[in-house]
UniProtKB/TrEMBL annotation:
Pfam families: CobS. PANTHER family: ADENOSYLCOBINAMIDE-GDP RIBAZOLETRANSFERASE. It catalyses: alpha-ribazole + adenosylcob(III)inamide-GDP = adenosylcob(III)alamin + GMP + H(+); alpha-ribazole 5'-phosphate + adenosylcob(III)inamide-GDP = adenosylcob(III)alamin 5'-phosphate + GMP + H(+). The keyword Transmembrane helix applies. Its EC number is 2.7.8.26. Belongs to the CobS family. Its main location: membrane. Pathway: Cofactor biosynthesis; adenosylcobalamin biosynthesis; adenosylcobalamin from cob(II)yrinate a,c-diamide: step 7/7. This is Adenosylcobinamide-GDP ribazoletransferase. The chain crosses the membrane at residues 13-32, 44-65, 126-146, 185-208, 214-233. It comes from Leptospirillum ferrodiazotrophum. The gene is cobS. It is a multi-pass membrane protein.
Length: 261
């Protein structure tokens, strides 16, 4: 009978699994075993982690929406939308909305590049950041309210935006600088094959339902994230985790709004 492997001698597979779970805990507020947080494994936020987070979030939100419709049919659609919007924000801990606020604050605040770097590290939000948060929350609520087919829209919005992010990040990094360290650097330095593979999986997931509007919605996510990245990266201090969060949140909203047309 063999004894458990010491901390430094755990199989590589287990280290990858623990890093994956730690990445999920960072990207969402879904619980993972306390031992994962104490294990000392490096944080892994690559294409697989992003796709896994998207699938979990989309699945939970779609199931929650179905449950409300199935067992609480008296709940009016505006109230159901508010409940889903609140659940969406709680499940992510607002991490992507924080990226929206910091990115747009940096982009529009009339300050020096040094001050913009300080803004990104400051937990307090300025006027531009607060206005961006309000507009993005309203836009997402509107998208949830109007999107059709509803369950597929709610499921695929978090999946597609996260599936497309790694390859979008790599494309943008060819033209714009990458911030030192952090999630932004991790994304663009990951495997190009894995990034492209996850993007293709996301595209396949958009094609399989056979709904033409979902296909065009997925196109809106991909092209919209690329466009917004090219538009705002020159105005901020390089590609970073904040920009990644901004692109994810934007992609979700673009998909929901595209399916409302």
């Amino acid at each position: 009978m063999t004894s458990p492997s010491p901390e430094g001698e755990r199989p590589g597979f287990m280290l990858r699994v623990e890093g994956f779970l730690l990445g999920l805990a960072f990207l969402t507020r879904l619980p993972v075993p306390r031992s994962i947080h104490l294990s000392g494994v490096p944080l892994r936020i690559g294409p697989a982690t992003l796709l896994g987070a998207g699938l979990l979030l989309g699945g939970i939100l779609a199931f929650f929406s179905w449950t409300l419709r199935r067992f609480f049919p008296v709940v009016p659609l505006p109230l159901e939308t508010l409940i889903l919007l609140g659940a969406w924000i709680l499940l992510t801990g607002g991490i992507h909305l924080d990226g929206v606020a910091d990115t747009l604050e940096c982009a529009y605040a009339p300050v020096s590049p040094e001050e913009k770097r300080r803004i990104r590290k400051d937990p307090r939000k300025g006027v531009f950041g607060i206005l961006a948060l309000i507009l993005y929350v309203l836009a997402k609520g509107t998208g949830i309210f109007l999107a059709h087919p509803r369950l597929l829209a709610i499921f695929l919005a978090p999946v597609l935006s996260r599936a497309f992010l790694p390859e979008v990040s790599r494309i943008l990094a060819r033209r714009f600088p990458v911030g030192e360290g952090g999630l932004g650097k991790t994304l663009v330095e990951g495997s190009g094959v894995a990034s492209l593979g996850v993007l293709l999986l996301g595209a396949l997931g958009a094609i399989l339902p056979g709904e033409e509007r979902i296909f065009w919605g997925a196109g809106a996510v991909l092209l919209g994230m690329l466009f917004l990245g090219r538009l705002y990266l020159p105005k901020v201090d390089g590609f970073s985790g904040d920009v990644a969060g901004f692109l994810v949140e934007s992609g979700e909203i673009l998909f929901l709004l595209a399916l409302s047309l």
